[in-house]
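Human: I'm a chemist; would you kindly supply sequence and structure tokens for a protein?

Assistant:
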Amino acid sequence: MPAYAHVGIGTASSFTAGLAHPLSGLDHMTAMVAVGLWAAMKGGKAVWAWPLAFVGVMLAGGALGMLHVPVPFVEPGILASVVALGLLVALAIDLPVSAG
């Protein structure tokens, strides 16, 4: 069965399309760049821990989608994460690695 991500955008009918999906949307790209910038600003363990956590959460979301688990407010959640990450970068918020 094809995977439906972001209703109205199209379908992903192959493994390659699923892997390429995060690289094709402005929302995912903005969040990934913000995570990378924020991690680089923090330095140390955050440089690998925060991007790894981000990818892990995206993989968990993908798994929930494949299992047909209804997750409410996915799109508003993505928007909120982009705004929050943008603010963390713009304001140079310094959090402990575990909180990030």
In short: The beta strands are 3-4, 11-12. DSSP finds four helices and two strands in the chain. Residues 26-90 form one domain. Residues 59 and 65 are 10 Å apart (CA to CA).
